[in-house]
Fold:
Amino acid sequence: MDIQLFIPCFMDQLYPETAFNTVKVLEKAGCRVHYNESQTCCGQPAFNSGFHAEAQSICSKFLKDFEGDMKIVTPSASCAGFIRNYYDQLFEKSTKRKELKATTEKVFELTDFLVNQMGITDLGASFEGKATYHDSCAALREYKLRNEARTLLSKVKGLELVEMSDTGTCCGFGGTFAVKFESISLAMGDQKSRNAEETRADYLLSTDISCLMHIQGVMNNKGQSMKCLHIADVLASGY
Structure:
């Protein structure tokens, strides 16, 4: 299957190795990965900050960059959820609605694509250690992901997966929320890090690198040794 790959801003700028691991995972699954180098942002930061005109401009570029019939896969439930749920609102009175529908219906988060579109649950990965899993707000509430990542992780050789308390509780990042409401954001991150630490896991995994960046920062400031990893980094291990 030929697919187009969309890499979110956070990953492109701060965690490029996870982007390369996403390619590795998709190729292992049998995909031919196409990457449009002119791609930029999905428009979510501008939209969430209330700059809807600017967001519409960015989103229009996204629609142009990802023209065609190929499915669009992204290692971000946050970006995928935004495109699926809010592009229609943003272009409610636009002539781009037909183009919009054709694009948003072919956007998939990585684990959803692997499990539900390709029918793959075992990629032959191996990763030694004990891990717990964080359900990001975007994955759980906007994209409606729950079991896909856990299904894939359960097949990883050498990995022990344990659930933390209140796994679906927000980590406190929320994009600009972490800047505008710093004290609340840090308190939420502290709660999440404590719940993770109580599992005695070595790793905290998730589908969203922005959450992981926030939680890792909280953990580092507290001196916790747990390491946060995107699920693509685990699924790409061992082969």
The two ends are 21 Å apart (CA to CA). The mean pLDDT is 94. The longest strand covers residues 126-133.
